[in-house]
């Protein structure tokens, strides 16, 4: 009888260990305590440093320390993915999310940098997946700047697109009679094409090159227009409609645009 009780207690203690670990990770990744916020800020800084490395990868490829940095980042990203998976309430559902799938793909490119170097430009998508987490937006919300979230997201989407296209152009067209001799040339072509400036000093050859330029122009203009709309249009205010609960309204709105209920949005400075 005593042996059975000891076995039960031993099994419970073994099960309690992983449970405590998962609870602690949830508090660190999703909590609001001072310790959790410091942890989240540290993770954010590390992620931004990793993204900077991804942007500079084409320039650092020939460096002797490139592989060492690459594998170190792979280890950090693997630990972060494992920790986020343990912190999730539904790990299976978490694994099916698009940002997680992209992060796993990025991890694979880091583990095989020589074989998958041509796909390395997709690592910048890590910046996009980072904006799918609350760690990026929580500081804005705490400072009452949540109305700028869409604008910041639009800027990030534009930056991600620029660097993804730059990496693709550099990988696919460098040294192929296109005038692209280096990464900076690819960045220059991307920006001039997106803005429809088109100086003509760098032209992608062939039908595939023309199609690439067309896609870059169409998507690039769309992203620029979206960003311009968010920057120049009046910022919406957060005021829950008493009738339908809609939160975002125009600053001068008298009626809710969803249900027509009469609103009483306070002026700036009112308590």
TrEMBL record:
Presence of the UniProt keyword Hydrolase in the record: no
Q: Where are the transmembrane segments?
A: 36-60, 98-117, 154-174
Q: Where is the signal peptide?
A: none
- How would you describe this protein's topology in the membrane? Multi-pass membrane protein
Q: Name one GO molecular function term.
A: voltage-gated potassium channel activity
- What keywords were assigned to this record? Ion channel, Ion transport, Membrane, Transmembrane, Transmembrane helix, Transport
Q: Which residues form the Potassium channel domain?
A: 160-231
Matching Pfam families = Ion_trans_2 (PF07885)
Q: Which biological process, per GO, is one annotated for this protein?
A: action potential
Where is it predominantly found? membrane
GO CC terms in record? voltage-gated potassium channel complex
Annotated localization: Membrane
Q: What is this protein called?
A: Potassium channel family protein
Q: Which organism is it from?
A: Devosia ureilytica
């Amino acid at each position: 009888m005593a042996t059975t009780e000891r076995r039960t207690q031993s099994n419970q203690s073994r099960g309690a260990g992983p449970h405590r670990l998962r609870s602690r990770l949830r508090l660190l990744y999703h909590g609001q305590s001072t310790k959790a916020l410091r942890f989240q800020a540290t993770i954010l800084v590390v992620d931004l440093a990793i993204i900077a490395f991804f942007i500079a990868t084409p320039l650092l490829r020939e460096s002797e320390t490139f592989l060492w940095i690459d594998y170190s980042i792979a280890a950090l990203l693997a630990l972060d993915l494992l920790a986020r998976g343990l912190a999730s309430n539904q790990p299976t559902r978490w694994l099916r999310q698009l940002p997680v799938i992209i992060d796993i793909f990025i991890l694979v490119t880091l583990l095989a940098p020589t074989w998958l170097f041509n796909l390395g430009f997709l690592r910048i998508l890590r910046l996009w997946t980072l904006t799918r987490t609350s760690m990026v937006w929580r500081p804005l919300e705490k400072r009452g700047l949540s109305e700028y979230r869409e604008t910041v997201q639009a800027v990030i989407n534009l930056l991600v697109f620029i660097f993804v296209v730059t990496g693709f152009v550099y990988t696919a067209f460098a040294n192929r009679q296109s005038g692209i001799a280096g990464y900076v040339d690819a960045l220059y072509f991307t920006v001039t094409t997106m803005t429809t400036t088109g100086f003509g000093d760098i032209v992608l050859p062939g039908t595939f090159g023309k199609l690439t330029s067309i896609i870059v122009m169409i998507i690039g203009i769309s992203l620029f227009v979206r960003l311009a709309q968010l920057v120049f249009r009046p910022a919406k205010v957060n005021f829950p409609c008493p009738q339908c609960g809609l939160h975002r309204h125009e600053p001068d709105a008298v009626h809710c645009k969803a249900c027509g209920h009469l609103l009483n949005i306070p002026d700036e400075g009112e308590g």
